[in-house]
């Protein structure tokens, strides 16, 4: 008979596996509840929400494979909200919050916290954060590029109780809903969040009924220790020292020029300290408060680390963070405007942190994913007379970065969502809103060139039906291309950039900055997203792979020659002799190419 060795916590390994599986199931059912009951397209199509379980401490015991920009900020936010109420937390309570001054990400990401009591004792928290389609304020969907302070962006919700000892506070819910456009969608999504938290509560209570509080807590302690061991093992493999990464944030319309975010990491044995240096905060909506910045830092670390599950707060025990001086871009203070922060500057911050780690371990270097460059739309439905508003998350789907082993994935980004975002069916969006989507697909030549090609970005083109529609652009990637790695080069850089094109009266106007504009029937808004960065020298990509990319519409014949040194005949077969000469010349020029 094989002897079974217990874990350091003393929990039987089979019991540990069962508890872990039950927790994961609870979280997945929360996610499915949101998908099936959410009213807005942001919830039921795009899946712009995240769920997590916390214990009584409160520490995160399980995060879903959801939106990274949500998950990192949940750790400080949970502590801030629980700390705000202190001992005034009771069975049947439900707390709500979105305020970045209380460690929220941005005010569109509204978070619900439900304490779970078992036999009178607080044991768990079920937590659900989701991006509401509107949060009030002067601009539909909340992204106001003209805001100079947070008060011009929308409704701030400090920690508040929506349910008090099991009683729904209709007065508070009504106060929130009266400050938001498209109330039916907002209230439907709020109810979906409540349902998700209740489903999570039901499952963890069943787990406690089966194993008891003591066993479950011991298993959770071991899962956190396991995550801690995984991360420390990785950090220990990095040579002790000081490493630095820098990334440049483009001027997306604020007029302050390009901005640099710097990450300095110090590795000592199995610990790492991450220090961020960023410019002073701006009167523009790209400032990031502390909670949001923690998400960006954790994502940069996890892109590099790629440690196995479990994913919980134990991962970050060996990590300390200094966000820099208060009042800076990545450690903003009131009243800095901030709504764009979950994409800009979060993605630039993530790149800086990832590059600092890669400086310590160059063999793990990867190309960046495309940054978010999207639009929101709003108007009055001419059939119902109701106001509609939505963040078009399909419009920010960009390409993933290549690695030293493989091409980047198409339409998988942006970086801030890291593959967790869905674009949804075109037909369902057209059913939900008075619009025609003329085009949605991959964009030729948008992918970063390299030995391994980046993933292609997307184009999304829309026309309103029977009404004037407001179009609001946000994000970046329209002036500075996605960063490649290991010698990747883009000769046709303009084609890799995002942009908003307004086609009206036979003319096309291109916007590369964040704007608010309007279109009528017969006019179209076309939003283009950047692709992912390439990896390695483009002229080392196999000839047949470049030829296949051309045939599949990912790369044009012109780009095949100019970026990859592959000359094609009229039938799209490879002219191998001409290609060899072209590649020899590109190789000779080297860095001048």
UniProtKB/TrEMBL annotation:
One of its GO terms (biological process) is glutathione metabolic process. Pfam families: Hydantoinase_B. Residues 12-538 form the Hydantoinase B/oxoprolinase domain. It comes from the Bacteria. One of its GO terms (molecular function) is 5-oxoprolinase (ATP-hydrolyzing) activity. One of its GO terms (cellular component) is cytosol. PANTHER family: 5-OXOPROLINASE RELATED, HYPOTHETICAL 5-OXOPROLINASE (EUROFUNG)-RELATED. This is N-methylhydantoinase B. It comes from Aquitalea magnusonii.
């Amino acid at each position: 008979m094989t002897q079974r060795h217990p874990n350091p916590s003393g929990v039987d390994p089979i019991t540990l596996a069962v508890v872990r599986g039950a927790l994961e199931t609870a979280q997945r059912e929360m996610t499915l509840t949101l998908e099936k009951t959410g009213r807005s397209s942001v919830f039921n199509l795009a899946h712009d929400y995240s769920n997590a379980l916390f214990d009584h401490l409160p520490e995160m015991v399980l995060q879903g494979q959801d939106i990274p920009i949500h998950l990192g900020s949940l750790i400080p936010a949970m502590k801030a909200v629980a700390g705000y109420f202190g001992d005034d937390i009771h069975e049947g309570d439900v707390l709500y919050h979105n305020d970045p001054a209380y460690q929220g990400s941005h005010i569109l990401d509204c978070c619900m916290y439900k304490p779970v009591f078992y036999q009178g004792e607080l044991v768990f928290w079920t937590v659900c954060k989701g991006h509401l389609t509107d949060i009030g304020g002067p601009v539909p969907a909340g992204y106001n590029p003209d805001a100079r302070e947070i008060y011009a962006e929308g409704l701030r919700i400090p920690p508040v109780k929506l349910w008090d000892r099991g009683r729904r506070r209709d007065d508070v819910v009504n106060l929130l809903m009266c400050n938001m456009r498209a109330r039916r969608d907002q209230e439907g999504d709020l109810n979906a969040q409540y349902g998700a938290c209740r489903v999570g509560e039901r499952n963890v209570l069943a787990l406690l009924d089966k194993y008891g509080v003591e066993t479950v807590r011991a298993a959770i302690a071991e899962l956190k220790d396991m995550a801690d061991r995984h991360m420390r093992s990785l950090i220990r493999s990095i040579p002790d020292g000081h490493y630095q990464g820098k990334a440049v944030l483009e001027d997306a319309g604020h007029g302050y020029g390009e901005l640099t975010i710097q990450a300095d990491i110090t590795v000592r044995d199995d610990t790492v300290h991450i220090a961020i240096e960023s410019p002073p905060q701006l009167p523009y909506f790209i400032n990031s408060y502390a909670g949001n910045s923690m998400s960006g830092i954790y994502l940069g670390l996890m892109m590099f680390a790629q440690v196995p599950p479990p994913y919980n707060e134990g991962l970050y025990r060996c990590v300390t963070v200094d966000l820099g001086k208060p009042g800076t871009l990545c450690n903003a203070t009131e009243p800095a405007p901030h709504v764009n922060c979950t994409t800009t500057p979060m993605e630039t911050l993530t790149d800086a942190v990832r590059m600092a780690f890669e400086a310590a371990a160059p063999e793990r270097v990867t190309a960046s994913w495309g940054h978010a460059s999207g639009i929101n739309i709003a108007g009055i439905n001419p059939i119902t007379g109701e106001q509609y508003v939505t963040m078009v998350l399909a419009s920010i789907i960009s390409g993933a970065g290549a690695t030293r082993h493989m091409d980047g994935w198409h339409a998988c980004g942006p970086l801030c969502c890291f593959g967790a975002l869905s674009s949804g069916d075109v037909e369902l969006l057209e059913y939900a809103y008075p619009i025609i989507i003329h085009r949605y697909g991959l964009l030729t030549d948008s992918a970063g060139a390299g030995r391994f090609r980046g993933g292609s970005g997307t184009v999304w083109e829309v026309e309103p039906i029977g009404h004037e529609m407001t179009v609001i652009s946000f994000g970046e990637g329209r002036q500075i291309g996605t960063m490649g790695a290991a010698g990747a080069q883009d000769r046709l850089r303009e084609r890799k950039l995002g942009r908003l094109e307004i086609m009206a009266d036979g003319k096309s106007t291109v916007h590369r900055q964040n704007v608010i504009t309007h279109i009528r029937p017969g006019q179209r808004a076309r939003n283009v997203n950047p692709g992912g960065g390439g990896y390695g020298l483009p002229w080392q990509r196999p000839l047949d792979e470049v030829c296949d990319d051309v045939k599949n519409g990912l790369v044009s014949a012109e780009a095949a020659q100019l970026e990859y040194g592959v000359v094609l005949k009229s039938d799209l077969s490879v002219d191998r002799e001409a290609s060899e000469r072209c590649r020899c010349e590109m190789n000779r020029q080297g860095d001048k190419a």
